[in-house]
Structure formats: structure tokens, C-alpha cells
Amino acid sequence: MALQKSELSTMPGRYNVRIESAWRRFVETGEVDSSVVRPIIAVSWRRSRQMGLDPYDQKCFTRLDDAQLETRLRAKKELIDTASPFMNLLCKPIEGSGFRVDLTDDEGYLLKAMGDQSILEEAEMLQFLPGANRHESRVGTCGIALALATDTPIQVAGAEHYNFHIRRWTCSSAPIHDSSGKIVGVLNVTGHWSLVHKHTLGMVIAAVEAIERQFILKNLADDLGAMNEFLKTVISSINDGIIALDDRSLITHFNCVAAKILQYSPEEIVGRTAREVFSIHPEFQEILSALHDREIQDREVAIRGKHGSTRCLVSAKPIRRGPDSISGTLITISKMDRVRKLVHHLVGTQARFTFDDIIGEDEEFKKALDLARICATTCSRVLLQGESGTGKELIAQAIQNASPRRDGPFVAVNCAAMPRDLIESELFGYEEGAFTGARKGGKPGKFELAEGGTLFLDEVQSMSLEMQAKLLRVIEDGQVVRVGGSEVIPVNVRIIAATNQDLAVEIKNGNFREDLFYRLNVVTIVIPPLRKRRVDVPLLVEHFLKKASVNMGESVTGIEREALDCLCAYSYPGNVRELENIVERAVLMARGHRIALEHLPDKVRATEPPLKVRESGYYGDGPALSRELVPRDDEQAGASKVDNPYEPPLVSLGELEKMVILKALKTTGGNISRAARMLGMGRNTLYRRLSSFSAVERPKIHNI
Questions:
Q1: Strand partners, 176
Q2: Which residue, 395, 364, 509, is CA-closest to 458?
Q3: For the chain, which residues make up each domain, given as ranges?
Q4: Least confident of 19-23, 78-82, 293-297
Q5: 7-218, what's its fold?
Q6: Which pLDDT band, with edges at 50, 70 and 90, does 225 fall under?
């Protein structure tokens, strides 16, 4: 029967003789006496023999050179630093007993040795110094080798060692694991084999457990430190201000955004109470006092820092230890201008059009655009004057996108569309409870929403005189006060106003303040109506035709010459907006074919193009239209241009009447009744006029 470990302390002499005999038999024959040799030793002997290790070899006791050792010691510094205090503790009870304490890494390299000087000097003879290796593949069976190979504490004594030259020693070894359970080294106590005792291994195991606990604690500390740094990084990277308070409302943490909002340095904030730091409005005190009962979400308040007041959106949440215990508070602060910028980005209150999107070759129109481009480089207020539908907002957006405020919001307000009793609250905002129906928490006005950008006031002449006076005050002071409030809110907004009226006449009639006019009228840009820029009609038709075809999924191939003639001759009381609607309707009616005369509204078809346009096919001095849009035959393509195609031709009244009648009949497809209604005459009268036509001139008609 194999000996138990307890027998090691009671029969050292007898045991060593028997094991030595078994060792010699194994070395000579390869056979193991299982009645003497423990299974774990026998298995290691066989592995050592299979690896071709010579049990009498001394060349295996080599060491790393100094450079290699230094590199390994640096790499294993954490293991050495963690284990060293426990090695010192382990040395005290074995001091003077002829033992030493060793620390190896996971490859069996000796990193550190401590203990009695006599045994250290004796071990030096076998090169068992830092840099020596005791892995099983080098020296065969030993305590360190088996601890690494089996991942269990082990005690190896005397002739149990595979190598003949180290069998005088006893080794009590235990593997050391890091916090993840990986073997990182071995703690070993070595002495003369005759001094072997089972309690030695117990001491080693206890020391290893202490080392492993230290690894776990250190790992936890590292994790906590890393988590703390991670949280600091997260807090610092958040675009909102973050403030942490303890259970006494003392500020414990804050990020750089909060410091910037509050205008304080860290030394001035940490350790002070929130109320002391903020010197705040009553509503913020209400937030802090309400935290014991509920959390606060998105409350708009004014926070007073050292250098003034800042309007912010504040949320606060208590940090609870339990249902009835609060350990602190986490407060988030967002500056209102940042919140509004985000809202503008999400809801699309940004200028979309640029000067490149504006189509026109008319000289007067190009002069207006040139002036607008100049204005865009400044922050001057601009007054856009033009009829409805001429593109005033389009030009206002182009000015915004070409200005230094291009990244700011573009907020458009139609003053004529707002009830007179609500326009003040819409422009300047209101506080909670300012009037019946006021939203809880209040509401910012258009001036606040346009902070850092442009406020476009369309149809500004529709404002009441009282409202005009308030607008004038905001322009002069650069600040607003919400309806029902007292807080003065500074605003940085560029104003572009627009009107479809002559403000000079409105001033004369007492409908518009002269002082406001001069405030708004730093630069006036007059936008000509479409009827005065007929050269642009074909260009706009081509643009709107392509746009409508894409949006409506209709592959309209172009427009007939007669239809384009009518579009060029029409007066457009609704200006460019009306032209776009007419083209969109025509695309819908054409259903994938070329737009013809019958696809246009009656009012457009009733317009007679000037004779010179009909004869020459000329549409002005702008860029030529594509042949795909309006095909031209060789005769038309070679026709000479005329100076003024829309100047009425000098013809007799009789000829003019004949032209109008023929046009009406062609438009109605020869329908006498419809043609008569279009011409504003009776059917009999139309018949009489037709009777004077020659047979060649008389069109085909049908009496309906």
C-alpha cells in the first residue's frame, strides 16, 4: 500500500530508504513500485522518462543571463510585489530552521528566494538562484514542477525527486492563481528532506490563499479605479452639465460643462451646498426641495452664476439607498440655446435653399440677388419687398445660408397668419399661468428659438401698431421679456422682414410706424414680379416640369410650343408660386405625354401670345431651353431674334378681332357655345363675325 502524506513526519529514514530503492529500480528498469511510490509521483516519473530527461544530469541547472532575468523580473513585477509581503510573513516562523521560501512564475523560473543564509548558499551550488528553472520539462519531478503540472498543492521529499542531485531536499509547493483563476506562479518552501512535515505544506497553502485574495482585492480596486475613470470620462464627454450632490446637498462631482454654465472653477464648487453656489431662483430651490418626494424632468429655470443669468433646462433625480433613504442627487443642466439647436435640427427649422437654388436671368432680378449676396456677408437687417409668390422667403433662406449664421436656426413667422392677441406670446414667449390656456412650464417665443440664427418676419405690415412698438423695443435692446414674466432674456437674432405692400404708403396712412420702418430698412431688396421678368418663365417652366415629373412619378417628355407661348404671355398675379402650380397641374393632366395647350387652365389658354413670339419662338436673352423640352424645326431654329418679343404688334382692330376669335375656337375645339362664353359675346354675334371670314380662314365648328 502506498504511504500517506501523514507518514512523512513519522518515518523519514525508513521512507527515504524505501523510496530511494524504488527510484533506483525505476531508473534502471522503468518499473514503479506502487506500494512505495505515490501515484502522482509515479506519473511524473514516467513523464520525465518519456521526455528523455537524464536523472543524473547537472546541465539542466542553468540560469537566465542578467539581461533576460531583468526582463522577466520587470514582466512579473505585479506577482513579485503582491507575494513579497506574504513571503516575509512566512519566513518568520521558519527562521533558523534550515528552510527557504521561493517564488517562481508560471513557467517555473525562480523570481525571488528568501530564508536562512546557509541554505541559500547551499542551493547556490545547484544554481537554484533567481533565473533558474524548475519546470518538469527541465529537471523532472519536483514540488514546483508538480504544482504547475497538476494545479494542486504538493509536497515532494528526498528520492521522490526525479533528478539525483536534488533528492536531498523537500519541497512544499502550491500554485498561485490570479483573480481570473489562471496560474501565475508557485510559492515553494524548501529544506532538507529529513525536516519534512505536513504542516509546512499547510503554511504554504495558507500563504498562497492570502496572496490570491490580495490579487482579487487588487483586481477589484483596479476595476473600481477603471470604472471611476470610465465614469469620469463619460461624465466629461456628455454635452449636458452634470452635478452630483450628497445627502447633505453638498456638491461632490461636476463636469466641465456644468462648470462652464455656472462660471465657477472646481475649487470654488466642490464641497459647497447647491444653494450657496447657485444663488438661484425660487424655482430651483423648489426643485431641490421636491427631490425627496419625486424626480424633476426638464424644468426650465434661470441659473444665476457669477457673471449673470443663464436659462437652462434642469432635470434632477434622487439617488436612493432604499425606499426611505436618499444618499444623494444627480442633476443635469442643459443650456436652452443647445436644446433649441437640437430641436431645430430635429424638426427642420433650418434654411434649406441657397442662391444656387434660385433660377433667374432677368437683369433686375439678378441685381436683387447680387444685393442679397452682399447683405449675406453682414449681420444687417434686411427688408424684402415684393408681391406674394415672388420668392421672398426663398431669398431670405439663401441669405441665411450664405451668412456667418448659417449653422443657426431659421425661424419663419407669418405675421398675417397669427391672431393679433396671440402674436406677442408667439414672438416673445410666455410664462406658466400668464393667461388662460397657457402651457404648464411656459413656452419660449420665436425670438428665443431663433437664438444665434435668423428670424424671418413675413408680411410684417400686418402687425398692430402696439405690437410694432414692442418689436421696436426688442430690436433696440436685444432682449425680450416673456408675457407674464419679469426675467430679461438676451437674444442674438438677425431679423429679415418681408412685405407685399409699399411701407411708405402704409406709414402715410398711419398703419406702420416710421421708426420701425427705419429699423428694419437697413437694406431694402425689391423683388420684381414674374410678369416683369418674362425671360425667366421658360427657365422656370423647365425647372418645375422636371421637379413635378419626379415628385409625381410622371415621365412627361416636354411641352408644346403653343402651350409655352401661353405660359410666357400670362400675367401671373400669383407670381412664381402660381406658375409652379400651373405646371404641376399640367403634368398631372398630361399623364406622361407632352404638355399641350389643353392641359393648361382656361385663364392661361385665353392669353394671346404676342405675334413676334408666335412667329420667332423667341423667349428672351436667357439660356436656351433644351430641344427635348420644346422641339424646334429648322425654320424656327434659324429664325432671327427680335429685340422685344412681347411688344404688341401693330395690326388693325379687325385683324386683332379675327385672331382672338380663331384662338377661342381653337382652344374650345370648335365649340361655338364655349367660344362665345369665353369671348363674352352671344352665339349669334359669333356666327355673324364668322360669316365675314373667308372660306380658308373659317375653322371647323360644331353647334353645341
A1: 185
A2: 395
A3: 7-218, 238-341, 348-528, 530-634, 650-704
A4: 293-297
A5: Beta-Lactamase (3.30.450)
A6: confident
Grouping H, G, I as helix, E, B as strand and the rest as coil, residue 500 is coil
Q: Give the span between the Cα atoms of 269 and 264, in whole angstroms.
A: 7
| Residue 59 CB coordination number (10 Å) | 6
Q: How would you classify the pairing of strands 296-305 and 479-481?
A: unpaired
CATH superfamily, domain at 238-341: PAS domain (3.30.450.20)
- Count Cα neighbours of 255 within 13 Å in the Cβ-side half-sphere: 19
* Inter-axis angle of helices 198-237 and 77-91, nearest 10: 140
Chain segment 104-154, per-residue pLDDT in tens: 999 999 999 888 777 777 777 777 889 999 999 999 999 999 999 999 999
| Closest alpha carbon to 433 in 297, 283, 285, 315 | 283
Cα radius of gyration (the chain): 49
The arithmetic mean of pLDDT across residues 338-359, rounded, is 71
| d(C-alpha 41, C-alpha 481), whole Å | 91
**DSSP letter assigned to residue 79:** H
What span, in angstroms and rounded, lies between the C-alpha atoms of 144 and 104? 8
* Side-chain half-sphere CA neighbours of 572 within 13 A: 28
Burial class (CB within 10 angstroms; exposed 0-12, middle 13-18, buried 19+) of 13: exposed
Q: In a 3-state reduction of DSSP, which class is residue 180?
A: coil
Q: What are the phi and psi torsion angles at 155 (to 5°)?
A: -125, 125
Check whether 648 has a pLDDT greater than 50: no
pLDDT at position 620: 42
Inter-residue contact 415 to 460 (CB < 8 Å): yes
CATH number belonging to the domain at 348-528, selected among 3.40.50.10090, 3.40.50.300, 3.40.50.11030, 3.40.50.920? 3.40.50.300
Burial (CB count <10 Å: 0-12, 13-18, 19+), residue 523: middle
3-class SS of residue 700 = coil
- Backbone φ and ψ for 294, nearest 5 degrees, come out as -165, 165
* pLDDT, position 621: 40
Q: Please give the mean pLDDT across all residues of the chain.
A: 81
Report the greatest alpha carbon distance in the chain.
Answer: 152
pLDDT of residue 4: 38
pTM of the model: 0.53
Q: Does domain 650-704 have CATH number 1.10.10?
A: yes
DSSP, collapsed to helix, strand or coil, labels residue 593 as coil
How many other C-beta atoms can be found within 10 angstroms of the C-beta atom of residue 83? 27
CB atoms within 10 A of CB 31: 9
